[in-house]
Amino acid sequence: MRWLEKLRTPYIRDWYSANAIGLFIAISLLYFMALLIKRMLIINDIAAFEVLQDRGEMWVFDLLFGLEYLSVPLFLVWKFVFTTLVLWIGCFMFGYRLTFAQLWKLVVLSELVFILPEFLKVIWFLIIHSDPDYHEFVAFYPLSLINIFDFEALIPKFLYPLKALNLFEVFYWFFLAASIFWISGKKWSISLMIVFTSYVPVFLMWLLFYIMAYR
């Protein structure tokens, strides 16, 4: 994996050296921006929301969207802490002595993988499918399994898992492994094993739990 080794220095110098708090704030702002763009350019133009706005009943959804903005940093903190803990346990099992702080920063950096589909969703509904209803908007996720099914015929409990199983998630797994490889300076195969024996099984078990617990 020489080509991967060549990326170690640029990764550490240009990305990993950034301030962890600054990275967290930047990612939160990117999610805020994506939410705001989707609200202004897509959701406001959906017929059902136009009717609510004409009736003066849009304030309920304004409140919900406001809560969604506030929930972004809280959700990210929870996600980063949980993912970091799972990877830290995985590293410990394979004898990789990476600290929680080191893993936290690479997990925060890896979240950039999920920023792209947020903006691809905006592009999809602005250019390709420019007149969606709200259910189409909510059900869509770029390059996910849900796109090969008729979402209206699916049992609701399968909507989230099928959206969560997408190519960006798979790329995220490999980016986590590459980040561990770059920071630890050890074997790529072991870095890959750490992710595929810790984070990936936990992620899949979470989806299974969601399906079983959905009511």
Describe the secondary structure blueprint for this structure.
Blueprint: H1 2-6, H2 8-16, H3 20-41, H4 47-55, H5 59-93, H6 100-110, H7 115-128, H8 134-139, H9 159-164, H10 167-184, H11 188-197, H12 199-213
Helix pairs in contact: 2-10, 3-5, 3-6, 3-7, 5-6, 5-11, 6-10, 10-11
Describe the structure.
This protein has 215 residues and is mostly helical. It is built from twelve helices and no strands. The model is unreliable at 47-52 and 54-59 (pLDDT under 50).
Taking Cα atoms only, what radius of gyration do you get, to the nearest Å? 19 Å
Strand content: under 5%
> How much is the average pLDDT?
86
Major β-sheet annotation? none
Query: Please, what is the oligomeric state?
Result: single chain
Approximately how much helix is present in the residues? Answer: over 70%
* N-C termini distance: 46 Å
Unreliably modeled segments: 47-52, 54-59
Q: With helices defined by DSSP (H or I, 4 residues minimum), what is the helix count?
A: 12
Query: Which descriptor suits the 3D outline?
Result: globular
Q: What is the chain-wise order of helices and strands?
A: HHHHHHHHHHHH
Strand runs, count: 0
Question: Any descriptors?
Answer:
single chain, 12 helices, mainly alpha, 215 residues, globular, 74% helix, 0% strand
